[in-house]
Amino acid sequence: MGKGAFEKLYHRLNTVSVLEGVLDTPLLGAFFAYVKREDKAEKLRAYASFVAEIYRAGGSLTALVSRLIFEDENVYIKAKAQGKEVPACVKDALEKELLAFSVLASLRADDFAQDMGLDEEERASLPTYESAAISLSKSYEMRVNGVGRYGYGVFSSYPMFRIDDDKKILPIKSADKTDVSKFIGYERERGLVDENTRAFLAGKHAANVLLCGDAGTGKSSTVKALVNTYYAQGLRLIEIRKDQLYLLPYVMGKIAENPLKFILFIDDLSFNKNDDNFSMLKAALEGSASARADNAVIYATSNRRHIIKENFADREGGDVHRNDTLQETLSLSERFGLSVLFSKPSKQLYLEIVHGLAIRHGLTPDAEMDIKAEAFALQKGNRSARCAEQFIDSIR
Length: 396
What we know:
The protein is of the alpha/beta class. It has 3 domains: 5-146, no CATH class; 169-342, Rossmann fold (3-Layer(aba) Sandwich); 347-395. Helix content is 49%, strand content 10%. Helix 4 (61-71) runs antiparallel to helix 6 (88-105) and helix 17 (347-360) packs across helix 19.
């Protein structure tokens, strides 16, 4: 880059308006700090901070700037996602901004070294990073044209999310990478959930789903594997804890205008009969206007067929309408349009899973392995897909 190029880029970035949110990121803060420094030592320190941000994101400046652009929730991408017309002035501003960010994304460590006037010895000690020439205008246009698959904001970069205590929807960066192709057994059960998910993605009627049954049979893994499978088709998952069910209307409001499809996932669901969260989930399952989004379905797992915990006192209580109350609590599971039962595997299925896992890990199934696998299950107290996996891990 020629003399004064960094100052020119600095001024161009300071006129950004459509992608203004990108300016508030640590990377841009570090870059601005670098340009404003005059002393060489201060510039070196600012440059190191700039590179540190790149390293935290994987080591590529080009990839990091691209991700920041794609994740930005701005007026242009929101309008395009909703099929609205965008004013010409906004389009023109965006094009200029993408050109400026393309220059930033293409900067090399040598460009900084030249700007600081470093000699060969100083350059040798300079931390470097990856970068390449890029046209963000082209890649952003591709993203906009495929916004139904890519989405925008943080949803454009990750498949699974959680809600923190401040009601922020955050990505699960170490999300389960489970793949449907790696499952053994329960093909019918998984097929039902898969069929419903594909209907949902196709814009057809899709049910809220309850995956119930014995622990360790792969209920949660099934949901997460489907999200990984259909991520490229625009499917995302937001995990909601049972104590966060009161946030359902809030979450649905946050995603209602997003072109992506969302599974609101509640794992290991059960209630006590007086649980306040019961009514919130009931409203969402029954399609209450305050707790509904057209681009969301609820998938829940439970180790109980009836997800309301009940005792004999509840059956003999003094409520005049106790039968009505009892039926309402026991029928919450019926409010899911699709209930899929994952039963404890038979001995035959359990050994089939053991054999499949053994072959996958380079082991040869035989009669002795079957005896050991059965003994392992007996020690654990029951057969399950999880038990089979733990057994194979123990003999590898």
